[in-house]
Amino acid sequence: MSVPVTVTGRGGQFVSGLRRENFRLLVDGAAQPIEYFAPEQEPARVLVLVETGPAVYLLRREHIAAAGALLDGLAPDDRVAVAAYSDVPRLLLDFNADKRRAAASLGELIYGIGTTQLNFYDSLGSAVAWAEPGGGKYAIVALTTGLDSSGTGSWARLAQQLRRSNALVLPVALGGELRGVKMPREPGAAGAVEETSFARSDGVLRAIAAETGGQVFFPRSLRDFEEAYRRIASLLRHQYSLGFTAPPRDPNGREHAIQVQVVDGRGRPFDGKQAKPAYGVNFRRGFSAPAP
Fold first, then answer.
1. 205-255 pLDDT, tens per residue?
2. pTM score, two decimals?
3. What angle do CA 47, 16, 208 make, to 5 degrees?
4. Is 240 helix (H, G, I), strand (E, B) or coil?
5. Which residue among 98, 103, 131, 206 has the highest number of C-beta atoms inside a 10 angstrom radius?
């Protein structure tokens, strides 16, 4: 099992140069040996997943134009893939280090302008599956409203998949000033009597980020998008990865809690009471043991 970790100082800046011995990893309160350690210099794989439904058609130029800040901020060896979704997910560009190809793929996205299903949960699940086999450090940057009309059961499947995955998910919420406006489900869709709202999707995006140790961004302007993408690129350049052996398969898929601490040379956590600065540590909070 791999745990993506980012460390920030008091001013919110990312902390570089930490080593394996600067981390303590606990599962259900018990210390675990860190069997694999990837420093922040290790190249990452980044999958950019873009919603292309009608809800973001009028916003496409703004957030895609700003995505150059993400691509420009990645390390030269980082590899990028591009995928899109509305009713179904489509992998448009597989992982490669040519950022120009990624920019071209983003610029050629085709957006729907009519009534359509938005299968965000299943599409994100597909993105996790596409990225999983390569191992190492990888992240999914999801440009999405967070709206989903796929019916009951999709969220539960996605949440379970995220708990068993090593993916770091960084949602960038689309919709700007529209967020907070209720949008009814498509007539005839499962659960048509229910309403999907941006308010609910905000909670979903926060839950996805928290589940995977990521962060969520709510930009409203071109400048906000550029700042969010720069922050994401910086985060990915400063991401550590800690690996450990997960507990044996559990017939009930039991939940396990994870805690990561930054420690000094004697293995003592920095708690702000010492001469060294206190650190903020962001990491995956738990995982599900695989079922047999």
1. 999 999 899 999 999 888 898 999 999 999 998 999 898 987 766 666 678
2. 0.84
3. 35
4. strand
5. 131
Q: How far apart are CA 246 and CA 280, in angstroms?
A: 25
Closest CA to 136 of 18, 205, 20, 45: 45
Give 75-88 pLDDT, tens digit per residue.
Answer: 899 999 999 999 88
Instruction: Give the number of other Cβ atoms within 10 Å of residue 230's Cβ.
Output: 15
Cα 90 to Cα 109: distance, rounded to the nearest angstrom:
11
Beta bridge partners of 243: 2, 36
What the block records as the tokens of 187 is: 């007539």
Q: Pairing mode, if any, of strands 280-283 and 2-8?
A: antiparallel
- Chain centroid to Cα 248, Å, comes to 26
Residues 6+ apart with CB under 8 A from 104: none
Q: Where are the alpha helices (DSSP H) in 188-221?
A: 198-212
Q: Which amino acid is at 214?
A: G
User: CATH for 44-237, among 2.30.38.10, 3.30.70.270, 3.90.1150.10, 3.40.50.410?
Assistant: 3.40.50.410
Sorted by sequence, the CB contacts under 8 Å of residue 164 that are 6+ apart come out as 287, 288, 290
Is the separation of the CB atoms in 53 and 88 below 8 Å?
no
Domain positions in the chain: 2-40+240-288, 44-237
- In sequence order, what are the residues at sequence separation of 6 or more whose Cβ sits closer than 8 angstroms to the Cβ of residue 266? none
